[in-house]
Design brief:
The structure holds two protein chains of two kinds. By secondary structure, chain A is an all-alpha fold. Chain A is built from 15 helices and two strands. In chain A, 68% of the residues lie in helices and 1% in strands. In chain A, β1 and β2 form a beta hairpin. In chain A, α5 runs antiparallel to α14, α9 packs antiparallel against α12 and α12 runs antiparallel to α15. Chain A starts with 14 loop residues before the first helix and ends in a 6-residue tail after the last helix. In chain B, β1 and β2 form a beta hairpin. The two termini of chain B are 32 Å apart. Chain B has a single domain, classed as Orthogonal Bundle (MetI-like fold), CATH 1.10.3720.10. Chain B has a two-stranded antiparallel sheet with strand order 1-2. Chain B has 14 helices and two strands. The chains are: A mainly alpha, B mainly alpha. The interface between A and B is large, with 104 and 112 residues.
Chain lengths: 310, 327
């Protein structure tokens, strides 16, 4: 039997096999070079695809610190001098509707933080009440939450816009936050599952001690749901940070980073200020990469649970 | 033993949720049942009002608006029967080149996502599962486009193909390629490039979803198949795919819905042309520019009325392909 045909060669050995290996005092080699040529062919394909994903950003990073003239002279050369001012210029000098890139960061942070907090609060309230309390219409509400997510209806944007106008919620951060504060989306389903499996014993003990239902939720259940809330919250925050559609319609004069960067990039491209354009793109990437590095496992595991839109 | 039984019974009682709380000692003032009712009403008030206004009313309003038109004399919306719907189908039938192309472009996202992107994602996921060298790093890199702001990703893609300052054309020229096309110049080149972008940037989420599902297949099943001498192709098509079929069905259905939802890619990659319009982009631009909202509602609704039953039918049919297996 060749090496790769064995389950252990692929790092998928059974527990029994692992125990035997441990018993014999054998150590699993950390890196194993596969002899399966097919996997090396696939590796080559994966490598090329990965390069196409990473290389443009590395190329932009180098070119973002060049002077304009230097960039036009040779797009491949390593920077001769580092123009850090490209970054400060785009952060503080250029603006979209009077808002600098730095200001857009502030708006995005505000919208993302409050939007995520509100959405998590409303979703956890709805999920907790429907999961833990029996009342008329409870099952119908759960079915409705699933239905809302499952049936796509195109063309509701004009009606939504019309309603937002009627309620005087256009061009207002409050309006956007109210739109984001839905309690019955994907977050609801994840948190419903969490609360459904959470023991009621803690609540029972608190009730006996005279705690109110509100106290039980805010002081006991919500803190217990922290891991689930963080997992759902990180994914949701990334979604809001990157959201283009809602702010572009309802916050036309208060651009978030996702909206403003697009307008700024178009302007810089129009001015042929390419190094500054690259600097803008790198700046826009940094926060999301930092979050990804900090929460990589959480983000990817929760995407497996179906959390992030492609 | 009996203690354990008693504890289990008590726990079972307690886990019945709010009902068991009836046994809690009575507090002064309102009784437990009323306090519970107040709690439920107060807590659900905002989520329900939000759902009512921004889902129910929005959908009802979509239907109502689609039967209306703006009357310039009275300055109000008035009922106009099926005029908007008739106009939609007349335009798709050839009355408007833009509307017709918009629908064709949108429908083409279905084969691109379901028959190119999805099979590629399945293949990539399977080989990540098979521990291709560097699998963990590849998985993270492939996922990155899913979290990068779309404005940055699309600009990166389109600028890479810039005729004079991008880096793709010099590489192609160095490889001896002549007659390099104008990538984003005219239709259908620009539309093909948008599809290429969707595949390039869209594999990541599907790969994470599907490779996650494959990794949950009990390792014993794969080991047994190996002992039986099952090859990779057979393992993929006869073991892995049937076992992760629910996940594949979900991603397939998401691919179907892209017909109605794709908007950002053409908006960012080809902002100055209507040639690459999609249903969602046409509605979005219409709303942004304050165009005929009732017509746009009718357009979206007509597409949903045709599309949603087809998607539900596909979902039903896919559910019949393999029996759902629990493991």
């Amino acid at each position: 039997m060749n090496d790769t045909a064995s389950p252990r060669a692929n790092g998928q050995g059974t527990c029994a096999a692992d125990k035997t290996a441990c018993a014999e005092g054998l150590k699993k080699p950390r890196f194993k070079v596969t002899k399966d040529w097919a996997l090396w062919v696939v590796f080559a394909v994966f490598f090329v695809y990965a390069v196409t994903l990473v290389f443009p950003f590395v190329w932009m990073l180098f070119n973002s610190v060049k002077g304009n003239q230097e960039y036009f002279t040779n797009i491949w050369a390593f920077p001769q001098s580092f123009h850090v001012e490209n970054y400060t210029n785009v952060l503080f000098d250029y603006d979209v509707h009077g808002v600098t890139l730095f200001g857009m960061f502030g708006i995005s942070i505000l919208v993302t933080l409050f939007g995520t907090a509100l959405s998590l609060l409303m979703s956890s309230i709805a999920a907790y009440v429907i999961a833990k309390y029996k009342f008329f219409g409870r099952n119908a509400l759960y079915a409705l939450a699933v239905f809302v997510m499952a049936v796509p209806v195109a063309g509701t944007l004009p009606a939504q816009y019309s309603i937002m106008q009627t309620l005087h919620l256009t061009n207002s951060i409050v309006g956007v936050l109210i739109l984001y504060a839905g309690g019955f989306g994907f977050n609801f389903l994840i948190l419903y599952g969490f609360f459904k499996n959470l023991s009621w014993e803690y609540a029972e003990a608190a009730l006996i001690d005279g705690c109110s239902d509100f106290g039980i939720f805010f002081k006991i259940m919500l803190p217990m749901a922290r891991p689930a809330l963080i997992a759902v919250g990180v994914i949701h925050a990334i979604g809001l940070w990157n959201d283009y559609l809602t702010p572009s319609i309802y916050l036309p004069n208060t651009p978030t980073l996702a909206v403003g960067v697009n307008l700024l990039l178009s302007e810089l491209r129009g001015r042929s200020a390419y190094p500054e354009m690259f600097a803008t793109m790198i700046i826009a990437l940094i926060p999301i990469l930092v979050v990804f590095i900090c929460f990589q496992k959480t983000i990817m595991e929760n995407t497996v649970a179906g959390g992030l839109k492609g | 033993m009996s203690e354990a039984k008693a504890a289990a019974t008590a726990a079972e009682k307690l886990q019945k949720g709010g009902q068991s709380a009836e046994n809690a000692p009575k507090r002064k003032g309102l009784d437990r049942k009323k306090r519970k009712a107040i709690f439920i009403c107060v807590m659900l008030a905002f989520p329900l009002v939000q759902l009512f206004v921004f889902w129910f009313l929005v959908n009802v309003n979509t239907v109502v608006m689609s039967f209306q038109e703006f009357d310039w004399l009275s300055g109000k919306y008035i009922f106009n029967g099926f005029k908007n719907f008739i106009r939609v189908f007349e335009e798709i039938g050839g009355g408007s080149a833009v509307t017709r192309r918009t629908v064709i472009n949108s429908v083409l996202y279905f084969p691109v996502t379901c028959f190119i992107s999805l099979p590629l994602s399945i293949l990539f996921s399977y080989f990540l599962y098979k521990k291709v060298p560097g699998a963990a790093a590849f998985r993270v890199i492939f996922f990155l486009p899913s979290i990068i702001p779309v404005a940055v990703l699309t600009m990166t893609f389109s600028f890479s193909f810039d005729a004079t300052l991008g880096f793709v054309n010099p590489i192609l020229r160095a490889l001896g390629v002549e007659n390099i096309p104008s990538w984003f110049g005219r239709y259908p080149n620009n539309q093909i490039m948008i599809f290429a972008y969707c595949i390039w940037a869209g594999l990541g989420t599907n790969i994470v979803l599907i490779s996650g599902a494959i990794s949950r297949i009990p390792v014993e099943i794969m080991e047994y198949s190996k002992l039986e001498g099952v090859g990779k192709a057979r393992e993929l098509f006869q073991i892995a795919i049937p076992l992760v079929w629910p996940t594949i069905t979900t991603t397939f259905i998401l691919g179907c819905t892209s017909v109605f939802t794709v908007m950002m890619q053409p908006l960012m990659l080809t902002p100055s042309t209507t040639d690459t319009y999609t249903i969602a982009l046409m509605i979005y631009n219409g709303v942004l520019n304050g165009r005929n909202l009732p017509y746009l509602s009718a357009f979206g609704l007509a597409m949903s009325v045709i599309g949603v039953p087809i998607i539900l039918l596909i979902k039903w049919a896919l559910g019949k392909v393999y029996a759902d297996v629990e493991y």
